Backbone:
């Protein structure tokens, strides 16, 4: 990090400083001025965090729970305990600190990927002022926390200090990310793929893969042991993967997203088993860990029996994640703004619609450009897999492999707008690179 700022031109430093200060100020204003309260999953996170802070452990409505990753509510609960306050506003302060830390990691990442000050600053401004990244300081969900962890993981892959320190740190941060979103349990394979494509050294790649995987496993292991003690079952992180897979892949699903369990297609036998586990509605799905193996088997069976329908739903999930605008800001980050309030005016409604239009255009445009970059970059990435001496630059391989990884995850499991959050800073970089290519092409045509 110190090398980054050595001999840096004043215009770059002051540009970075200006963007950062304004971006943080916008987050503070949003947090203080835009009314919002946690609902659905966010209310669950807050309740668990409060229970952790007040000595009741990782529980929900009096029961031990591992329905979702424990990373964010545990970190939030520890923060509540440290500051001695469990209010929602304190949770938003925690998000503000995480969002600021993410910004401080993202710019060095861009400088390493692009090696161009102008490209780095353009991508940094694009993500620093992205409406989603500003608004989500209001949301007590895993998104801001996971974006910070993921940025740290990317940073550790790019900056090559002592591997005896870097590899364990990488394993720890991947482990923390996995405890937040279990899809990161397989992320060491992504790290290894990126390393091999950059270095083409199989021995070093295997050392990296084994080292990172072992440290990640050690980071996750205490929680896995806790789950075994609580549920007498092997549950590495959470027991909702089968639930999510089944709800998003069944005969009654038409949009590729979440649906109520009661609405999902089920045979009479399956429905009877579900009802028995849930005690005919008396037990919450969030504590019914026995559902997971049952629904996972059903989801896998449906996918294998309906590959074309699965592909259709997968395409819908990718569209919902990356090309469905920023509707989630209104639903999750400003949900206490509604027409029934006394301060509501026509002018406010008009302004909110303009904000939504700008946010939609910003996000959809950025992601469209980013996917164009990734689709084109996939060609040399695939070729490099079969060309032993063909090494790829960081700026090509790292964003491409990571975006493809997240896209595959959302294609299989579940897609919605807020799930794009952790990878948006890489999408911003890809978008700026694509714009630069388009600009160069236009310039050649006009010369």
Residues:
């Amino acid at each position: 990090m110190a090398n980054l700022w050595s001999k840096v031109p004043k215009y770059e430093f002051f540009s970075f400083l200006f963007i950062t200060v304004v971006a943080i100020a916008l987050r503070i204003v949003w947090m203080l001025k835009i009314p919002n309260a946690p609902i659905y999953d966010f209310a669950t996170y807050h309740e668990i965090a409060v229970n952790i802070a007040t000595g009741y452990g990782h529980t929900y409505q009096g029961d031990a729970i591992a329905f979702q990753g424990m990373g964010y509510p545990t970190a939030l609960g520890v923060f509540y305990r440290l500051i001695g306050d469990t209010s929602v506003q304190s949770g938003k302060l925690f998000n503000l600190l995480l969002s600021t830390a993410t910004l401080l990691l993202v710019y060095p990442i861009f400088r390493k990927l692009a090696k161009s000050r102008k490209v780095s600053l353009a991508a940094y401004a694009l993500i620093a002022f992205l409406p989603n990244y500003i608004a989500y300081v209001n949301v007590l969900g895993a998104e801001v926390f996971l974006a910070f962890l993921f940025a740290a993981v990317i940073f550790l892959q790019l900056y090559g200090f002592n591997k005896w320190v870097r590899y364990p740190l990488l394993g720890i941060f991947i482990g923390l990310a996995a405890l937040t979103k279990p899809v990161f349990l397989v992320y060491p394979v992504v790290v290894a793929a990126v390393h091999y494509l950059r270095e083409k050294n199989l021995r070093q790649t295997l050392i990296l893969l084994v080292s990172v995987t072992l440290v990640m496993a050690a980071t996750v292991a205490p929680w896995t042991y806790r789950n075994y003690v609580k549920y007498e079952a092997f549950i590495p992180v959470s027991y909702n993967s089968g639930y999510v897979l089944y709800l998003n892949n069944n005969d009654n699903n038409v949009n590729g997203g979440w649906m109520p369990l009661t609405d999902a297609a089920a045979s009479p036998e399956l429905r009877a088993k579900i009802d028995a586990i849930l005690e005919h509605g008396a037990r919450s799905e969030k504590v019914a860990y026995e559902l997971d193996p049952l629904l996972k088997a059903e989801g896998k069976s449906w996918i294998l029996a309906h590959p074309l329908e699965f592909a259709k739903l997968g395409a819908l999930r990718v569209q919902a994640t990356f090309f469905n605008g920023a509707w989630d800001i209104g639903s999750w980050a400003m949900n206490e703004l509604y027409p029934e309030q006394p301060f509501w005016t026509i002018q406010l409604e008009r302004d909110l619609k303009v904000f939504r239009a700008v946010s939609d255009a910003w996000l959809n445009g950025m992601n469209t450009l980013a996917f164009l970059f990734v689709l084109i970059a996939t060609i040399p990435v695939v070729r490099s897999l079969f060309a032993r001496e063909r090494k790829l630059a960081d700026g090509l391989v790292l964003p491409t492999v990571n975006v493809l990884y997240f896209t595959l995850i959302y294609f299989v499991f579940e897609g919605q707008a807020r799930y794009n959050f952790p990878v948006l800073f890489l999408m911003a970089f890809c978008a700026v690179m694509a714009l630069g290519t388009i600009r160069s092409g236009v310039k050649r045509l006009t010369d």
About this structure: DSSP finds 19 helices and two strands in the chain.
